[in-house]
Amino acid sequence: MAFNANFVEATIDGDRLLTLHGRSSEPSKRPIMVTLQYAGVLDAAEVQHPEESNWTIQFGPSTYEVGETVIATGVAVDDDERADPFVWHDRLVIAAPVTA
């Protein structure tokens, strides 16, 4: 099966940390790098556990507000150095985290 990944949602917590929630089609050892555009600034970070199908990555703290939009771009490389990287992007509206 071909690798696929998507952003699921963006949430902020009380410490003003933005968490992007993502999902991969299958657990993978592929590194995943994410860039985030917010308020005219680009930030980048690497997903710490890309081997998990459901993964998260955090940015901040910053002035993130519920209802604002962020633009995220993900890049995953392949073990085969001849293969093109898998690239995806999305606009996400920041939501408050769901509390139990």
Overall outline: globular
Number of strands: 7
If helices are DSSP runs of H or I spanning 4 or more residues, what is the number of helices? 0
The amount of helix comes to under 10%
Output the helix-strand order. EEEEEEE
What does this structure look like?
By secondary structure, the chain is mainly β. It is built from no helices and seven strands. It has strands at 5-12, 18-24, 32-38, 41-46, 54-59, 69-76, 86-95. Strands 4-3-6-7-1-2-5 form a seven-stranded mixed β-sheet, with no helix packed on it. The chain is globular, with a radius of gyration of 14 Å. The termini are far apart.
Keywords:
100 residues, mainly beta, seven-stranded mixed beta sheet
Brief write-up:
The protein has 100 residues and is an all-beta fold.
Present the secondary structure layout:
Blueprint: E1 5-12, E2 18-24, E3 32-38, E4 41-46, E5 54-59, E6 69-76, E7 86-95
Parallel strand pairs: 1-7
Antiparallel strand pairs: 1-2, 2-5, 3-4, 3-6, 6-7
